[in-house]
């Protein structure tokens, strides 16, 4: 297996999410790779101010910036709502650092949020007794998402919050390449009763076997129940014009005056709305196919040293999940955070609508993963 930039793309893709805890699916990241971590400082306050969309846009922006800096080459990443984690090869380190620095500046100047960013050597995590292993989960035939295990990502995030391995912001006015980053879809209301944000991590002294069983039990409970499912409906998310996230797409554009960028985005989104609303095929773009891919490519569940899920579920299933978690937490096996809301939201990274590997980041629309993480921290206190 090659240990260069193509290492990740050489890992076999697995399809069944229920097998996500199988250690055989995870490949050891090379020692000379680096972990990128980013998060929004005081995201809880931003969420209290109802700035959910801005927080999600910021979290997705660092992934878009690095992806564009690497010219579309596949690399492992995980969207965390108010931040992101990923890994890059030594050959890609300089461009990644530059993209992260530019993104931190853009987030502050355009979104009025503070983003911490850091690049942590994988070897540093291993020196502290943690590992960084990665798998590729294919939610559809269109693309794959990264899954991380070993505890290294969690350690890297904690180190970043201590101020270690920091990437300094770029000079004022620096704009990252955020081509393809958008938020044109509207909030997605729950169809089953509530949108539940789920975050589950190992208890401090949990055995790997006990933790694995709890995660497998949770996933099996969700997958076997007709009372839960992906929060994106088969017909796709709601779409209107002008989109409510219009201003964020304007701020993500490079070059030109504010007036010209606004005019371009309004015209572009109007054209896209008409095409989607009336199912008009344009060139190689087929709206029905694109919507199907949006649904299939939504990242509503993942694993990055802990289980993350955004579920559209009934109150009854929420109680069943909560009971499993309470019992596991009482036994010291897990720590968890749950957050209920009435809708989900989607932030999209679509470098080309003609390709099938566009990525759609899902979070709860009233706090999502960030609020679930706050609940988890309160449990650990």
What report would you give on this structure?
It is built from eleven helices and 17 strands. It has helices spanning 43-48, 52-69, 93-111, 122-127, 152-161, 208-223, 246-252, 258-277, 287-296, 315-330, 368-380; strands at residues 13-14, 27-28, 34-40, 77-79, 83-88, 115-121, 133-137, 145-149, 181-182, 188-189, 194-202, 228-229, 301-303, 307-313, 334-341, 343-349, 359-364. The mean pLDDT is 93. A hairpin with a 7-residue loop joins strand 7 and strand 8. By secondary structure, the protein is an alpha+beta fold. The strands form four sheets. Strands 11, 12, 13, 14 and 15 form a five-stranded antiparallel β-sheet that branches. Strands 1, 2, 7 and 8 form a four-stranded mixed β-sheet that branches. A four-stranded antiparallel β-sheet has the order 4-5-3-6, sandwiched between helices. It is 37% helix and 22% strand. Helix 2 (52-69) runs antiparallel to helix 3 (93-111) and helix 6 (208-223) packs antiparallel against helix 10 (315-330).
